[in-house]
Amino acid sequence: MSDYRRNRWTFGVGTIGRDMLYTLISMFLIVYLTNVAGLTTRELAWTTGVVVGLRVLDAVTDPLMGVVVDNTRTRWGKHKPWILGGALLSGLLTVLIFVDPGLHGAARVAAFAALFFLWSVSYSLNDIAYWSYVPELSTDLRERESIGAKARIFSLVGVFFVVAGIVPITSALGGDDERRGWLLFAVLVVAVLWAGQAVTLLGVREPQGPEHQRERTSFRDFVRAIGRNDQLLCVAVAMGLFMIGYTTTTSFGLFYFQFVYGDEAMFSIFAIVLGVSQIASLLLFPKVSARMRRKRLYLWATVLVVAGYVLFFVAPTGTMAVIGVAGVLIFVGQAAIQLLMLLFLADTVDYGHWKLGKRNDSVTFSLQPFIYKAGGAAATGVVGLTAILTGLNDRAVGDLLEGAPLLGFKGAMLALPLVCVVGGYLVFHRWYRIDETAYAAVRADLAAREGQRSAPVAP
Fold first, then answer.
1. Which stretches are transmembrane (predicted)?
2. In a domain, 452, yes or no
3. How far apart are CA 141 and CA 438, in angstroms?
């Protein structure tokens, strides 16, 4: 089996558990804190503030972690040591987050803050080292699309296992003890994480060649790699706006079925439909992208998302058929956009190498967890504030929202994210310039430079 085919599968399998873990924390930790952990309104407010603040702080430090990864030199390469260490620590800390500390008030908030900060740092190291593999595994556009699509398909399997399974599995594992169910579910997720990361660590073969043997990255290089790569900044802003919108909507998902739709059990069915839709979107992506340029593909994916949001907002409460169609439109478009963003980010690595004369994979890809965390922080803030203002933490599941609280809930879940998604597309459309032709020119020039450096000197 060629290294490309081997890497495509072993890299992809590793994303299953990673995304299960991230989905559990980013989407459902706020649900656990609101509905299960037994926090008072004051404790919930402080805990929400801690999550938002630490995510912002951790996001800001992610690019510095990218420098650490870029400067790593070991016999196992620069990626694998951080993938291993980050997976082990973030898994252990995930379990501890769902252990009842038996504390109250300020002590409980402080204990949670310490665990969550350490979790964020350890997961970031794994995430940056993991995704910065993408531009190294291949410089061919179609091979990158295949690697990225395969990885996103596996990651969606992990995401929607958690989304669809969290209600029935926690209920089955915990019985009358909800906290025990969530703790055991966290243990299950961590077991899958460690198994999947083992496949990647043992299976991926890191390319060795002149392009992968680089000088160390100084702080000045770090500043230049981000600040002077205009295309990277464009992708970062567009991706950031999109992720704020997408993460906000998904974070409200279970609450919607508990307090608006009125049937919590339907959430799992809804999630399965959306998961299949996203996987179908990714399976079709290589064929569609072969016939349509990426910029145009991004436009049509955004159109689908906008149509889905509008339909979801006006859909009568309790009409699953209409809500289901709206959800499919949103998540088919979302899957394509998220893969496109990964590919755009990978292309800016080569662009930065061409423009600045130095390649910084991990520094560049450190912006992905930065963006995800910033989006997650914004989403947590929006969801937490909405939960407090509408009194969700004081309501029993099935006590439906009506009137102004319902309108405010839907505005936060659907209208605000719609503005963010459209804003992200407009930023991309205005400033992104690396199309397929431009990328080919960049790669050709880099190859010519490499050829000149390796050419023998005439006597």
1. 21-39, 81-99, 111-133, 153-175, 181-204, 232-259, 265-285, 297-315, 321-349, 370-389, 409-428
2. no
3. 12
